[in-house]
Amino acid sequence: MGFKSDIQATRVAGTASGTAVIAPPVRLRGIIVASSGAGAGLINLNTEASSGGTNLLTVDVPQGDVINFSLPEDGILFPQGVYLSTATNITAVTLLTDKSAANPNSRLRQARRRWKC
C-alpha cells in the first residue's frame, strides 16, 4: 500500500511565462494544461528563471484540447521551485503538488530546516 499525502492545486495563466509558479522546493505529482485554441500548445517547466536552470518537463497540447495526467511513482522534484519558462498557445496550467512541501509549517519543511536539506 502506497503512502498517501494531501495534494495542492496551483493554477497559473498561460501568459505568465518566465515566472515562478511555486517558489519553495516542491514535488510535482500531476498537471492539467489547457490549450488556447490558437494552435498547438507547449509548456516548459524549469528549475530556475526562463534564461537559466534545467528544463524538467515539456508538455505538448493539441490545439483546443485539455490534458490531465498524473506523474508516476514520486513525480518530479523541483529543488528550487517550479518556473513556467515557456507557455505557447496556453490558456492555463494547473500544477498538482504535495501540499506538505508548500506549507512552511509542515513536518517535511521543519525537518529540512533542522537538517539543512
Structure description:
There is one protein chain. With 117 residues, this protein is mainly beta. 11% of the residues lie in helices and 50% in strands. The chain is built from two helices and nine strands. It has helices spanning 99-102, 107-115; strands at 7-13, 19-22, 26-35, 41-46, 55-61, 66-70, 76-78, 82-88, 90-98. Strands 1, 3, 6, 7 and 9 form a five-stranded antiparallel β-sheet that branches. A hairpin with an 8-residue loop joins strand 4 and strand 5 (55-61).
Brief descriptors of the model:
four-stranded antiparallel beta sheet, 117 residues, five-stranded antiparallel beta sheet, globular, mainly beta, 9 strands
Please state the average pLDDT score: 82
Radius of gyration: 15 Å
Please report the number of helical segments. Answer: 2
Largest sheet: 5 strands, antiparallel
Which percent band covers the strand fraction?
Answer: over 45%
Give the oligomer, counting copies of the same chain as homo and different chains as hetero: single chain
Distance between the termini: 27 Å
State the gist of this model.
About 10% of the residues lie in helices and about 50% in strands. It has two helices and nine strands, in the order E-E-E-E-E-E-E-E-E-H-H.
Topology:
Blueprint: E1 7-13, E2 19-22, E3 26-35, E4 41-46, E5 55-61, E6 66-70, E7 76-78, E8 82-88, E9 90-98, H1 99-102, H2 107-115
Antiparallel strand pairs: 1-9, 2-8, 3-6, 3-7, 3-9, 4-5, 4-8
